[in-house]
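Lab notes, practical 5.
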Amino acid sequence: MLINKNGHFLSAEQCSVEINDGGFLYGDTLFETLKARGQNVLFTKAHLDRIESSAHLLNFPISRNTIETELKALSQRLSSPVSRIRLTLSRGPCDGFALPAANRSWFLLTATEATELSADDRVRGVPCVIAPNRRSNPLDHLPQMKRGNHADCLYAADFARRKGAHEALFCDNDGLILEGSCSNIFARRQNRLITPPLGNRVLAGVMRQAVLSVCYRYGLDAIEENLTLKDLLDADEVFLCNSMVDLLPVSAIGDRSLKRGEFWREILTRIDAMNETQPC
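Output from the prediction step:
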């Protein structure tokens, strides 16, 4: 594992967090998960744009230039074919509910080896279940963000694993599909690709935006529209997406097998080509 805290590379034994840190006590952190192939960190700008926007909305201290510099230094030390990079921001130690001064904040970059999904993995697809709990947003006057207070997703993902599924899908109180515990979702109906609209429950996923951008660029029909469980069960194909798995077809939801298609493959091929020809 590679660890960089506030611009200093450390061993795991050297890295520590104060016991009154707001991230430890209250989950008051922001984070991003990035994927690297070799030393090429994918969608860097999109990830940093998102965390910077969230930081500004929450008056969170952030130095983008410093993070960009240290992320580049971290990437130059990567030696695995695929790596998972986590960027975490914390305000630092708290005195009760009083937020600390900006100069107490810190950022942490970690990198661990990851495994790329195989072509066979994607062809097989993955089963999903409906989460038993609801997607939450303690700051529901603001858009959904990647915050450290992530217990709703943690417990939904554990529920999926215990049921032998890959992902748990959140529904709202009206039965509308929102997203997975760590993924966005798309359904294809004939030649149209549909994904739930953003809001205070649906995260603006980086790979979600990449899928939409590819569709818009190449004249493919894609819209943001409400989806129900019935819509997914009746769809011509359904796939998940996030920055680590890229695009991953869904084979079943609960005990219902889904139709399978190949549209995901065309989108993923175009995204991979975009990553090869453009700075990320």
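Observations recorded by the TA: Residues 263-277 form the longest helix (15 residues). The two ends are 23 Å apart (CA to CA).
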